[in-house]
Amino acid sequence: MANTLLVGIDLGTTYTACTVGIIQDNGELHRKRLPIRQLFKSPQESSPFESKELLPSVVCFTQGQVYTGDYCRYIYPTDNQTKVIHSIKRQMGNTRWYTKVEESVYRPRHIAAFILKTVYLSLQKNYPGLQIESVTITIPASFSSKMRIETIEAARISGFETDKLHLLDEPVAAIFSKWDNEADCFNEIPNDSNILVFDMGGGTLDASIINISTNNHIIRVLSTSRYNELAGNDIDIEIAALMLQKIWIAMGYSSLSDFLEKEIKIEDRLHFSYKIMEHAGAFKMQLSDALRNGPAIPLRDRLEDYCSNKESLDFQILPHIEFKSNILNHINIPIHEVLKVIEPLISFQKQYRGKDKINIFNPIDQAIERAKFNYKDISAIGITGGSSYFTPVTNEVFGYFNTKKQVLLDAFFAVADGAVNWSYLKRSNLWTINEIFGDRIFLKREGMPFLEIMTNLTVPSDPVERIFDDEICFYTSQKSRGVTLEFFQGDSPEDHLMVCTHIERQIFPRELSGDIRLNKVIGQIDKNKVFQFEMVFKDEIGDIKTKLDFELDSFDNSNKSSISNLSGIILNGEVL
Question: Is residue 430 part of a domain?
Answer without folding.
Answer: no
